[in-house]
Amino acid sequence: MSKDNKINVTIWNENVHEKTNSAVCEIYPGGLHGFLAEKLNSPDLNIRTATLDEPEHGLTEEVLNNTDVLLWWGHAAHHKVEDAIVDRVQQKIWDGMGLVALHSAHMSKIFCRLNGTSGKLHWREVGERERLWVVDPSHPIVAGLPEHFELPYEEMYGEPFMIAADAKPIIISWFEGGEVFRSGFTLQRGYGRMFYFRPGHETFPSFHNANVIKVIGNAIRWLKPAYRADYPKTHTPDSLEVISPKDFKHVKAGIIR
Ligand code: ZN
Hints:
By secondary structure, the protein is of the alpha/beta class. It has a domain at 7-115 and 184-230: Class I glutamine amidotransferase (GATase) domain (Rossmann fold, 3-Layer(aba) Sandwich). It has helices spanning 17-20, 22-27, 31-40, 61-65, 83-95, 109-115, 210-223, 248-252, and strands at 7-13, 45-51, 69-73, 98-102, 122-134, 148-158, 168-175, 180-189, 192-197. It is globular. The N and C termini lie far apart (52 Å). The structure holds zinc ion.
């Protein structure tokens, strides 16, 4: 939290499609990062953006130390994200920072590391209807959402989705072509939490949808760190009780009397 009690949000975007496909900039003026910053704008949030081309991808120690929740949109340039920066992001999540991984971030280095999986899935890009179902209406991330809502044009993502076994689904999708998908799930890693949210293909207007923005906004507030510290914070403590002397020859041999 910042001194003014606002949640510090950093929206990271690889910003690659925006440079090569004019349709993306027509749908998302200012790029996906700039558009999301405007849509999510709220008095309780301090929002900044960062992109791949900036020094250290815009994710310096200082930026991440002052980020409560990081949003991540990447697709074509996952491999260009430097491992040292991914190490840094991972450490900050272990320390308590929140992460919202959007759409094709399912193959980003940070997503795969946090899940311990490949992040792979089936996909089809023809612009089909997606119906998103809330499967855990008790979760704050879906507060104010209907039982289900639809996006008229999206890329299909289908199961099996290679994610962590302890991922907790909150939203699942059905697609016009018949597939289903775990579209919204949470994970805890160290002191930090992440939320993956599926919609947001760069050539479809899903981030214009009020329910999609509501989910991302709710996620930011839910992911706000309640506790933040070096993880794991380890030390060699003095014993609280007197520890009786042992015959170390036997202990080391695995024979304890
Ligand atoms: Zn896509």
